[in-house]
């Protein structure tokens, strides 16, 4: 019951032979893919830290307010990014 499919061969590799053979090559590929994402996250945190540091010169109460506002902005910003991009069935869900 051997059924041969046209174009299928057992000698052909499923992945190209140009894939990395060792850990250093794999690490280079991962860093090239994940590097920009890591850099953007770090730079976003630096911007938040710099704004809180500037307010820190004004005193403890403004520093606490700026820290709380930054935390709230981060949480609400992430919740808006996670929200699906489909229109809601109930408009009150978006309010």
UniProtKB/TrEMBL annotation:
Name the UniProt record assigns to this protein: Protein DETOXIFICATION
Domain of life, source organism: Eukaryota
Family assignment from sequence similarity: Belongs to the multi antimicrobial extrusion (MATE) (TC 2.A.66.1) family.
Pfam families (alphabetical): MatE
PANTHER family, A to Z: MULTIDRUG RESISTANCE PROTEIN
Highest classification ranks of the organism: Eukaryota, Viridiplantae, Streptophyta, Embryophyta, Tracheophyta
Example of a GO cellular component annotation carried by this entry: membrane
Ranges for region Disordered: 1-26
Listed InterPro entries: MATE_fam (IPR002528)
An MF annotation (GO) of this entry: xenobiotic transmembrane transporter activity
Organism: Dichanthelium oligosanthes
């Amino acid at each position: 019951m051997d059924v041969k499919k046209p174009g299928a061969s057992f000698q052909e590799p499923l992945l190209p032979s140009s894939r990395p053979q060792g850990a250093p090559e794999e690490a280079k590929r991962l860093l090239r893919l994940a590097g920009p994402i890591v850099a953007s996250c770090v730079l976003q945190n630096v911007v938040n830290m710099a704004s809180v540091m500037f307010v820190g010169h004004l005193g403890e109460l403004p520093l606490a307010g700026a820290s709380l506002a930054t935390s709230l902005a981060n949480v609400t910003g992430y919740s808006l990014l996670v929200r699906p991009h489909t229109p809601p069935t109930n408009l009150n869900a978006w309010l």
